[in-house]
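Would you mind giving me a polypeptide sequence along with per-residue structure tokens?
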Amino acid sequence: MCIGESLATAAVAAQYAVDNPRFVFATAGIHPHDAASFEASRDVPKLRDLIGGSAVAVGECGLDYHYDNSPREAQRAAFSAQITLAAEVGKPLVVHTRDAEDDTRSMIREAQAAGVLGVMHCYTGSHSLAEFALDAGWYVSFSGIVTFNKWADDDLVRLVPRDRLLVESDSPYLAPVPFRGKRNEPAWVAHTLSKVALTRGDEPLDLGQTTAANTERLFGLAIDAP
């Protein structure tokens, strides 16, 4: 999956998805780091066009109070606008959250009221927030971070039910061990999957089939088999 974190990269991702149907899928959204420059009247129509064309989800959107690259009020406003858009176009959300758990809960409630599902992308937050999202019908996705030596929350990996579990590359970042420090590649998500399977006591191929099915279900995909 190719995720567009700004309108410019989302447009490129959307075109790549058009050129590679049933193999590459795009999302389009405003990342919380970029929320300060978000203008709903200008940007929502652009997002709507991208999503109506080929994107399968709204995002990566959300809240990041760790870096605070955008004012928190602007982050919440951009996130709320994208929840409204997701409800309008009938697409799920891809959500980034860091050090913003209380407000993320509020936003999940807002999405739930609007009938919008989502995935907690590259999740490293608390058990309680994960459970809150799961109770709302959401999914939780893990990246190569779970392979790092500093990772110390295998119970979080085991907490997520099989039918709500996703794995991701988050490339070009967060390359899993044994490639940590290199430019990440989507193919390396297999290493993340293997670690998640080992942690949960699952067989990797079986869990891979499950997470692929979960991905298809959440995003409404039709994926070509390799």
Q: What stands out?
A: The mean pLDDT is 92. The radius of gyration is 16 Å. DSSP finds eight helices and seven strands in the chain. The helical segments are 7-19, 40-53, 72-89, 101-113, 127-135, 154-159, 189-200, 204-219.
